[in-house]
Amino acid sequence: MATRPTQATPPRGLPPKPGMLLPMRVWDGPVRLFHWALVVALLTSWLSIEVLNNLRIHMLAGQALLVLLLFRVVWGFVGSETSRFSHFLGNPFHAVTHLMHMTKKEPDTQVGHNAAGGWMVLVMLLVLFAQVGTGLIIADEESFIEAPLNHLVGSEWGAWAKKQHRLIFTGIQVMVALHLVAIFSYAILKRHDLVRPMITGKKRLPAATPQPRMRSPYLALAILAGAALAVWLLMTKV
Ligand code: HEM
Ligand code: HEM
Questions:
Q1: Quick check: is 112 in a domain?
Q2: Which of 2, 19, 90, 211 lies at 20 to 30 Å from 171 by C-alpha?
Q3: 175-185 pLDDT, tens per residue?
């Protein structure tokens, strides 16, 4: 059920003038909700263990994060055009050339992730998967902690996972800092506001820009339900 309104339309049905900037939908609702829910789940995992020292909340937030990640992977194959991996993972050399133009002030004509940002998204998703994966098999004999899937690997791997979990967490902190620095740099160096489109879904683009294909939010909901069911089965039946 893909919809493609051909182009953005100017207000009151006026014909678009060449070079005119018009608001266009670049991010669908599911990706925006995914993004901000991911931020909440990550902060909850972090604060629950480091500030509240509450492992129950920590693991619940971590499982919610796993649901979100599974959803995002599937949406990356069947979702709206700008959400698809095939749309934003291109030639890595283009990512390098993109970064080399970082200081150049030019109009923002980007629809979806840029060549460098796309690879960063993949790295972020993989690192978060690694954090959840290690978390699920942790065992600590001293404090009698056993994560839900530790029985699959035993206590030696559990102890190894605990160390990696700490290490990857440091990686996540670096990664989030880089992510924020990148977004800040686009605002300062190029005057590109990437944050507003991640909130509203819309961006002002030249009138001739083709509107990206959007998929039905009901499909997203079905995928989210499937991801939640998969995580529930993993936690209770494996
Ligand atoms: C389903 C997902 C997750 C599970 C099952 C899980 C499980 C655990 C467990 C069992 C511990 C306690 C280790 C111990 O003290 O022996 C722990 C610690 C910790 N987790 Fe997670 N975790 C998950 C996701 C995450 C995520 C997404 C983050 C990122 C914020 C995170 C960050 C941490 C940190 C910082 C610690 C403290 C590590 C230390 O000081 O040694 N975890 N986790
Ligand atoms: C816990 C912290 C955060 C994590 C783990 C995170 C992760 C991500 C991920 C995975 C994406 C890709 C979205 C997708 O295609 O599914 C993304 C995109 C984005 N994030 Fe974050 N994010 C975090 C915090 C923030 C914050 C605080 C802001 C706002 C200041 C922000 C602004 C953005 C923007 C603007 C994009 C789209 C970039 C583009 O136009 O290509 N993020 N983020």
A1: yes
A2: 90
A3: 999 999 999 99
